[in-house]
Amino acid sequence: MLKAIGFAAAATLFASSAYAQATKPNDAQIAHIAYTADNLDIAAAKQALAKSKDKGVRDFAQEMVRDHTAVNDQALALVKKLGVTPQDNATSQALSKDAAAKLKTYAALSSAAFDKAYVANEVAYHKTVNGALANTLIPNAQNAELKALLQTGHKLFTEHQTHAEHLAHGQH
Q1: Confidence at residue 22, expressed as pLDDT on a 0 to 100 scale
Q2: Are 102 and 117 in contact (CB under 8 A)?
Q3: What is the CATH number of the domain that holds 55?
Q4: Domain tally for the chain?
């Protein structure tokens, strides 16, 4: 049950990114999707900081807050510079809806069960976000600066995925 819930956000992003790929998102939609994905991971990390007692999980969650906030700050500066207004879209809406349900479900878990579910979700979420970046968002970005920011994010989020995988292998 926990694994199914843990992978729900990733499945939603995968399905939504497949939809986005079919409809070729524009730069304003891409910016909104990337910003939304970062914000959702920040919210999950803040929940982990509030619930977890595990040092490894807490350190990882602090890294997620720090890194995703930094990327979003760069994204906000870029859209302001370019005069682009991020455009809400079906992918962003699906991600937000799924994340709200996930946070509610995870809130009811004990600390140890939460840790396991959080880490499993972080592995799946980063794997899927990285796939969406590589296969949909970066290829469809028209602005060179947006594309470069997405590529930088992809490199960082690949490191996050590896960190989450190592953390998951250390848990029972």
Answers
A1: 55
A2: no
A3: 1.20.1260.10
A4: 1
